[in-house]
Amino acid sequence: MKKDIHPDYREVVFQDTSSDYSFMTKSTIKTNDTIKWEDGNEYPLVKVEVSSASHPFYTGKKLFVDTAGRVEKFNKRYKKK
């Protein structure tokens, strides 16, 4: 394999902002935020709005996701003239 062409594959913490649930996995995503994890080490942090802890399919609860402006933007773009 060629050197210096692959992204940095490292452990990253993903935090669900709506349910305050966090999990660690490996990813190549780039972020400037960091968080101190349960093992005492510091890892890159990625904040997400929806995860399996807050998604209605997995929880069985209704969840209001802020979609303000999306419908108006769609109607503006695809409105019949």
How would you portray this structure in words?
This is Large ribosomal subunit protein bL31B. One of its GO terms (cellular component) is ribosome. One of its GO terms (molecular function) is structural constituent of ribosome. Part of the 50S ribosomal subunit. By secondary structure, the protein is an alpha+beta fold. It has one domain. Helices cover 16% and strands 30% of the residues. It has two helices and four strands, in the order ββββαα. The chain has a four-stranded mixed sheet with strand order 2-1-4-3, with no helix packed on it. It starts with 9 loop residues before the first strand and ends with a helix.
Strand order of the largest sheet: 2-1-4-3
Q: Quick one: overall form?
A: flat
Contiguous low-pLDDT stretches (5 residues minimum) are none
Main pleated sheet:
4 strands, mixed
* Terminal-residue CA separation: 54 Å
Number of domains: 1
User: Share of helix among residues?
Assistant: 10-25%
Helical/strand content category:
alpha+beta
Q: Average pLDDT across residues?
A: 82
Tell me the fraction of residues in β-strands, as a range.
Answer: 25-35%
Radius of gyration: 18 Å
Query: What is the number of beta strands?
Result: 4
What is the ordering of alpha helices and beta strands?
EEEEHH
Number of helices: 2
Family: Belongs to the bacterial ribosomal protein bL31 family. Type B subfamily.
Subunit structure: Part of the 50S ribosomal subunit.
GO biological process, one term: translation
InterPro entries: Ribosomal_bL28/bL31-like_sf, Ribosomal_bL31, Ribosomal_bL31_B, Ribosomal_bL31_sf
